[in-house]
Amino acid sequence: MWVEWGAMVEGARGRGRPDLLRRGLLVLGGVAIGAVTSEAWWTTHRRMPIAGGPAGATLGNGQQDVGSGTLEVTWSGRTNQRLVALTFDDGPAPQWTPMVLDTLARHRVPATFFMVGAQVRRHAAVVRDRLSGHEVGNHSWGHRDLAEVNAAEAYDDLRRSHDAIADLTGAPPVLLRPPYGHLGGAVLHAAARLDYRLVLWSLQMVEREFPDDPAGHAQRIVSEVRPGTIVLGHDVGAHRRLVALRGLTDMINGLRSRGYTFVTVSALLGAGVGPAPTR
Questions:
Q1: pLDDT tens-digit map of 246-277
Q2: Which of 74, 75, 93, 207 would give a disulfide with 243, using CB separation of 3.0 to 4.6 Å?
């Protein structure tokens, strides 16, 4: 404000007093508007439920019930070996999940499926007895954005899905991928309570960029994989996603030609699970 006012005074020579006053009022008006906007922003955010709300990673004032008390977030594996983990979100469903499982079985490739609990309950028969060699992680109950709910709601949602997956597979899931990759504090708290390892991804299938070109899409993914890459795909969703699934064989063959071995996420992260055979 002072720099602007000084410039106005310096440039006032040759100008009339009304012009100078008008410019001064404009500056002061701008400051006033900025102050009102800033106050409105702070007023709004003061009213947001930070404590105990979606941003809060604690619950109440008592002892925190958070399992082991730590939470690890992973985007990719730490390795110099040519290992890659394929992951598929949002299933299971009868239209595409069997196609993915058929392709993986044909090429003896293990993968990690981040399943939605409601889908598991609805379509358990689609994957029952077909998950040997694969891994199943939690992807919430109904794919709502858990970064918008409080810690109690996030926990209830994840717990419900956790139990559905355990019933299906016979073992509780140990990995969590929240919908959209959103990590609100409430999600972190709930994940810690369930002793999850939180897994995101370092490379995502980009179907929109390759309409009707499965081979081109596969080539793009193959060229971008690095040791330890976690690849995000989907076995449920919009029709365009079939580009990636139809090119899955080319993707597998292309990565193998580069010397890559396919493993589950837990194997990639060294969670005590040995790499499954892929040849």
A1: 999 999 999 999 999 999 999 999 843 344 44
A2: 207
